[in-house]
Backbone:
């Protein structure tokens, strides 16, 4: 346990230090910010899909609600970002629970399908209420949050902490998991809007939900580090290969098929599994030798 | 509104409703057969539909083949294509518990791959695709002209639906397939080779979806966004009609086709899609086995 706490503290320090290390190069600093954002999203989705086994395909839609609420409060009502962001996150969490609650009693596939339906309906809604979303063209020139330090570096910390606190009980408290997971979606959405400066319904469509799921699944569902590992490997890809932007969907789609067929536990999940398998084999060997001695 | 325009609109609703309804029913029948027997919820059905339509467009417009020859090539070509998909994507999961979720995620990935491929290839060549009339000219319904090609498409689609229905009721293999939907274990005990039925039903279902795409391309112009809309509509029809029920998919497919025709007359077709989503969500929450469940 002490080792684990040290690892968490180490990660947090690293997460805090990295933006300063990358601050010389704006491009890398930008990618780092995006990576942090996706850590937030993937950890939030992992709360549901990893720990309760429910795949929330409406996740990006909830992030969209957080993003649009925050951007509207900031740009139309001159609310400070730091007040608007919690409001946006809360809106996402409330919508997530209200829409998600009825579907909680559905079995596996039907839950996933209902998530897809809700996501598609939300995307259509974003297009059809242009007074809040700017319709298909989206909202541009969203101001960045006014702070002396760039980015959202304290939030991965919150993510790890919340998961530490809730990791055990979520299976029993699915609703709470739903609420917190949606809250993460909303916080991520708010930061996304003000970090990118531009949002459109396409930023929060079903492909985004699937990309976040891929990051979680590729890293390792149901583990705390898995989504972080997955994010570090996968989230920067589209920004690094900008000239190959057209192939992004092909790459991500192929990775989804690859992950489901060859890597169902994810990268970090497989490492953990093999380590545990080895430990179990060792202890059973020890047990046998002890039994033989007595 | 003059009497003439009311008649004209009424006629447009009836003809469009019948053709679109028949094509919806075909695609949904394919999706429901796959899900009913193999437990394979094919989220990429819209992409397969689109693939058929786009290949048809290439063969007829770019290669100059006569439309009927093109149709036969695409439809026959779907058989080896589905055998390959069955071997590499479906068969490896026959023994996985909850394989429907695995399949669902995998086909979402497939859909993303196809969407990327289509935008990277066809998307660069054109954004609206239409075929020359397979049977030029029009017949007169009273004073109103009705394109012969659409009449032909309507007749073929209706004939195929009737043929599919009779096949499932009367033919030995069709009855074995329905036995697998209804009770897998009993079917095995009665000597049905379930794996062969799985393979056969996948090929049959893909054949039906491909034919739907080909017929749609012959009757109407289309664009790439149709793929995702079609996927959602087919799922909505399957869920509302009851997974595994071909009768359900035909009845609900026709109702949705007419809804599409009527709504498109007064408002955007997106509103129709939105209404399907809401209906599907309600059925999912209230009666997930669908209206025509046995």
Residues:
């Amino acid at each position: 346990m002490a080792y684990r706490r040290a690892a968490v503290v180490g990660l947090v320090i690293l997460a805090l230090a990295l933006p300063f290390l990358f601050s010389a190069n704006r491009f890398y600093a930008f990618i780092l910010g995006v990576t942090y954002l996706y850590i937030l999203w993937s950890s939030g989705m992992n709360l549901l899909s990893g720990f309760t086994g429910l795949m929330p395909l409406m996740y990006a839609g909830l992030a969209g609600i957080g993003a649009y609420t925050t951007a509207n409060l900031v740009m139309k009502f001159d609310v400070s970002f730091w007040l608007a962001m919690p409001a946006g996150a809360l809106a996402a969490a409330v919508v997530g629970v209200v829409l998600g609650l009825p579907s909680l009693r559905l079995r596996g596939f039907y839950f996933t399908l209902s998530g897809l339906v809700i996501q598609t309906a939300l995307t259509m809604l974003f297009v059809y209420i242009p007074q809040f979303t700017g319709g298909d063209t989206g909202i541009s020139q969203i101001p960045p949050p006014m702070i002396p330090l760039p980015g959202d570096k304290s939030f991965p910390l919150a993510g790890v902490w919340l998961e530490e606190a809730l990791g055990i009980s979520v299976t029993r408290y699915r609703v709470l998991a739903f609420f917190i997971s949606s809250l993460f979606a909303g916080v991520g959405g708010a930061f996304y809007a003000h970090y990118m400066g531009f949002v459109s319904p396409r930023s929060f469509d079903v492909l985004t939900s699937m990309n976040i799921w891929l990051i979680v699944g590729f890293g390792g569902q149901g583990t705390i580090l898995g989504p972080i590992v997955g994010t570090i490997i996968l989230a920067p890809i589209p920004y690094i290969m900008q000239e190959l932007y057209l192939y992004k969907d092909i790459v991500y789609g192929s990775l989804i098929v690859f992950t489901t067929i060859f890597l169902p536990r994810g990268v970090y999940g497989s490492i953990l599994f093999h380590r545990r398998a080895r430990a179990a084999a060792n202890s059973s060997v020890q047990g046998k030798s002890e039994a033989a001695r007595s | 509104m003059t009497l003439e325009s009311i008649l004209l609109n009424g006629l447009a609703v009836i003809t469009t409703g019948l053709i679109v309804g028949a094509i919806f029913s075909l695609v949904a029948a394919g999706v429901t057969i796959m899900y009913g027997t193999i437990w394979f919820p094919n989220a990429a059905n819209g992409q397969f539909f689109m693939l058929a339509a786009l290949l048809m467009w290439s063969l007829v417009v770019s290669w100059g083949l006569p439309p009927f020859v093109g149709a036969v090539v695409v439809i026959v070509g779907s058989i080896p294509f589905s055998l390959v998909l069955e071997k590499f994507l479906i068969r490896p999961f026959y023994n996985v518990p909850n394989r429907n979720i695995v399949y669902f995620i995998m086909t979402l990935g497939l859909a993303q791959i196809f969407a990327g491929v289509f935008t990277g290839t066809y998307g660069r060549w054109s954004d609206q695709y239409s075929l020359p009339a397979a049977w030029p000219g029009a017949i007169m319904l009273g004073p109103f002209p009705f394109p012969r090609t659409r009449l032909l498409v309507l007749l073929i689609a209706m004939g195929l639906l009737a043929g599919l229905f009779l096949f499932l009721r009367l033919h030995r293999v069709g009855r074995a397939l329905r036995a697998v939907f209804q009770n897998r274990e009993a079917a095995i005990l009665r000597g049905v080779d379930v794996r062969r039925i799985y393979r056969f039903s996948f090929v049959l279902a893909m054949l039906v979806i491909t034919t739907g795409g080909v017929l749609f391309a012959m009757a109407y112009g289309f664009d790439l966004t149709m793929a995702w809309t079609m996927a959602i509509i087919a799922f909505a029809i399957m869920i509302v009609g009851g997974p595994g029920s071909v009768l359900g998919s035909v009845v609900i497919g026709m109702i949705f086709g007419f809804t599409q025709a009527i709504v498109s007359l007064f408002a955007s077709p997106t509103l129709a899609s939105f209404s399907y989503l809401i209906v599907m969500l309600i059925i999912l929450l209230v009666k997930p086995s669908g209206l025509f469940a046995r």
